[in-house]
Design goal:
Helix 1 runs parallel beside helix 5, helix 3 packs antiparallel against helix 6 and helix 4 packs across helix 6. The chain is mainly alpha-helical.
Length: 219
């Protein structure tokens, strides 16, 4: 008997390396490492470790969330939110840097910010930003990082909302396992009923043939 179940227990794997917000978070991590090297003291300032760890946590929790998402929708949503929280913490650190050094946070209406926003929107990978870093000062780099933080967060909010809707409609792994088992039993029951109907039809035909044979013998 061939059996093709439609029930799926494991969710389709997400290729996290292809997610735009992961690629931006990876670029943000590497930009943050470079920012700390250039503009913060190498020793005696906890801000360096805090910023680098927040940036790393952002991208790593996206990876872990995507991997765990195959078996646990709840864990995927949780880790994606942890990633968001880490990047929000990083954004606050960049904002603090600008404030304490009396530098400007570029307003949305500012022409340089508009161009920066457009550039970040269309460039996702660190290689797009790397050639620029040695040519820009701390104000520009901090505003660049803030723009990436904002865009990454916006993408992640939309992605988490999608995950939450999927969880409501499809459930977690327990619900998918139940649906898969139920679907399997239903198809088995349908197959057995089909066999029973075919068997009954064969018995009827055999009886008809036996009657025909009896008539032929009498003749």
């Amino acid at each position: 008997m061939e059996y093709d179940t439609k029930g799926k227990v494991l969710k389709k794997a997400v290729v996290w390396k292809e997610l735009y917000f992961y690629r931006k978070s990876d670029a943000l991590y590497q930009i943050t490492v470079e920012f700390c090297k250039r503009f913060l003291p190498a020793h005696g300032d906890r801000t360096v470790d805090q910023m680098v760890q927040a940036a790393r946590s952002g991208k790593q929790n996206i990876v872990e969330g995507s991997e765990d998402g195959q078996t646990s929708s709840e864990m995927e949503i949780k880790l994606m939110n942890v990633a968001r929280s880490s990047l929000q913490e990083l954004r606050a650190d960049y904002q603090d840097y600008l404030n304490t050094h009396h530098l400007s946070t570029w307003d949305a209406s500012y022409e340089r910010q508009r161009k920066l926003r457009e550039f970040c929107h269309s460039h996702n990978d660190f290689r797009d930003y790397e050639p620029l870093l040695s040519k820009i000062n701390d104000e520009v780099m901090a505003n660049l990082a803030l723009t990436l933080c904002h865009q990454t967060d916006k993408m992640m909010c939309a992605y988490i909302e999608k995950l939450e809707k999927q969880f409501v409609t499809e459930g977690g792994i327990k619900e998918r396992m139940y649906a898969a088992r139920t679907g399997y039993r239903q198809e088995q029951d349908a197959y057995m009923k089909k066999l029973e109907a075919e068997n009954a039809a064969l018995k009827k035909r055999i009886k008809e043939l036996e009657e025909e044979v009896k008539k032929l013998r009498k003749d």
